[in-house]
Write a structure and sequence with these properties.
The strands form 2 sheets. The chain has a 5-stranded mixed sheet with strand order 2-5-6-7-8. A 3-stranded mixed sheet has the order 1-4-3. The protein has 8 helices and 8 strands; from the N terminus they run ααβααβββββααββαα. The protein has about 250 residues and is of the alpha/beta class. The protein has one domain: Lambda Exonuclease, Chain A. It is globular, with a radius of gyration of 20 Å. Helix 3 packs across helix 7 and helix 6 crosses helix 7.
């Protein structure tokens, strides 16, 4: 091989890096340009432990971007477009997709023991599927590791983080339900989607929790640990970034 015949034009590297930056940008326009504490929740916060949701608001940007995390997240974002493209190729009508639809801001007000509390949620959906009879379903796409694929989703277990995010989007956009698509990050296999019906009781429960988080943030206090949490080894706490703050 003659080294003189091999070149590496930087224009392609620059274009690739620019594309990666676009893929990795935060879906929330506010968090994209502002780090630190935020004044709003995201749709994903509706599926989190209330303490995690509070620390997410307080800390904002959680951790630095490493080369390994950069590659991992890049793949995670790309799978959404691939699933949506496949659905469109099958003749399914899609709207409100991540690449085309703007984010939505929703305000929630509820009465609590400390008075009426109002908080803001910013959502950005992967897409909405339109079916016959004006039926609309959320299209939510997740890419998971092989361990989670086998240990949870193959057994029909949906983590509350995903369930809550789907419920929030269905609630705010007044949809008829959600289709949760799961892709194996290692094999590229896509599972038959989970069909999730609207759950008003869950929304009511989470509304009160996020109202409590909002009140705690305005008063400078930290909520107590939920009574159902058993310690650092609790499944929801095991890999939480804020485990140290809760269980120190």
């Amino acid at each position: 091989m003659n080294p003189a015949l091999i070149s590496r034009p930087s224009v392609f590297v620059d274009a690739f890096n620019a594309g990666v930056d676009a893929i990795e940008s935060h879906p929330c326009s506010v968090c994209r340009i502002k780090t630190g504490p935020r004044d709003h929740f995201h749709g994903s916060d509706w599926g989190k432990c209330r303490l995690m949701a509070q620390y997410e608001r307080l800390v904002g940007l959680k951790e630095p971007m490493t080369p390994q995390k950069r590659s991992f997240l890049r793949d995670g974002h790309l799978h959404e477009a691939s699933i949506i493209s496949a659905l469109r190729a099958a003749g399914i009508t899609m709207t409100d997709t991540a690449e085309a639809a703007p984010e939505e801001i929703h305000f929630t007000s509820t009465d609590t023991p400390v008075g009426r509390v109002t908080f803001k949620t910013i959502i950005h959906t992967d897409g909405v599927i339109h079916l016959d009879g004006n039926k609309r379903l959320l299209c939510e796409c997740k890419s998971v590791k092989d361990y989670a694929w086998k240990a949870k989703f193959c057994k029909g277990i949906i983590p509350e983080t995903y369930y809550g995010q789907c419920q929030a989007y269905v609630h705010f956009k007044q949809l008829d339900g959600a289709l949760l698509f799961i892709k194996n990050r290692h094999t590229s296999e896509v599972m038959v989607p989970f069909f999730i019906l609207p759950d008003p009781e869950f929304i009511e429960q989470k509304t009160m929790q996020l109202a409590a988080v909002t009140h705690a943030l305005t008063t400078g206090s930290i909520l107590p640990k939920p009574k159902d949490k058993t310690g650092k080894r609790d499944p929801e706490c095991l890999y939480c970034l804020y485990q140290g703050q809760c269980w120190s």
